[in-house]
TrEMBL record:
Species the sequence originates in: Wolfiporia cocos (strain MD-104)
Keyword line: Metal-binding, Zinc, Zinc-finger
GO molecular function ontology, one term from the record: zinc ion binding
Highest taxon listed in the record's lineage: Eukaryota
Transmembrane parts of this sequence: none
Gene3D superfamilies registered for this protein in UniProt: 6.10.140.2220
Protein name: MYND-type domain-containing protein
SUPFAM superfamilies, alphabetized: HIT/MYND zinc finger-like (SSF144232)
Domain MYND-type: start-end pairs: 154-194
């Protein structure tokens, strides 16, 4: 791996899903066939553009249908519901069995598309740039917020112990002073948090501000 490619995969700082430049709502995504200087640089000849940074849309699935192709209605971080339509060679079939209401669609390098029926959304052509996260968007946002301020004490409610803590083997984020408190924490909600923390690992391991080559979900989709 080249030094430049390796640098692109290094997180510049702790990622947060609240960053609307990196994780934009639909209305903040660039439009097709336009050069958005937040994400792109215009070529010297003025006839094209190149990507300048990475970005990713997150939307919770509220409805799905297969009518010639896989169609998803997803709710973004601003509460707006938009259409995500699969125009890949398999028309979304590889994802059909993974789609579940309440889970979250993640789409790399999304651009606003106007469909012929007048609706707006995303036209998905590259399956390697889309994945389904088995968590709600609310859970992902909450987990992202927690990563900004991880407690130094045992995660069990009321426990203030700071030494001899063991990390959760699933997410490696939550820490407990013993098995009893770990079981209490699991039942109190870490079961949900753990899945969300693990889902965020891919995003936190990358530098979204420096573009060397396009990211891909291929290895984790």
């Amino acid at each position: 791996m080249s030094e430049n490619a390796d640098r692109s995969n290094r997180p510049s700082s702790q990622i947060t899903l609240r960053d609307r430049l990196t994780f934009p709502a639909f209305g903040d995504c660039p439009h097709e066939r336009s050069v958005d200087i937040r994400y792109m640089e215009e070529d010297e000849d003025g006839f094209g553009s190149t990507l300048a940074r990475h970005w990713c849309f997150l939307g919770e699935i509220v409805q799905s249908a297969t009518v010639a192709r896989l169609l998803l209605d997803v709710r973004d971080v601003a509460g707006r519901v938009v259409r995500a339509a699969f125009y890949d060679t398999d028309l979304g079939e590889p994802f059909a069995q993974r789609v579940k209401k309440g889970h979250t669609l993640a789409l790399l390098y999304p651009q606003q598309h106007h469909f012929m029926d007048g609706s707006k959304g995303f036209r998905i052509e590259e399956l390697r740039e889309v994945t389904i996260i088995p968590c709600s968007l609310v859970s992902l946002l909450a987990a992202s917020d927690m990563l900004q301020r991880l407690p130094s004490t045992c995660w069990a409610d009321g426990c203030e112990k700071e030494t001899e803590l063991t990390a959760c083997s699933g997410c490696h984020k939550a820490k407990y002073c013993g098995k009893e408190h770990q079981e209490i924490g699991w039942k109190a909600g870490h079961r949900r948090e753990c899945k969300a923390f693990k889902s965020l690992e891919w995003y936190s391991q990358r530098d979204w501000t420096t573009f060397q080559s396009r990211f891909s979900f291929t290895s984790s989709a």
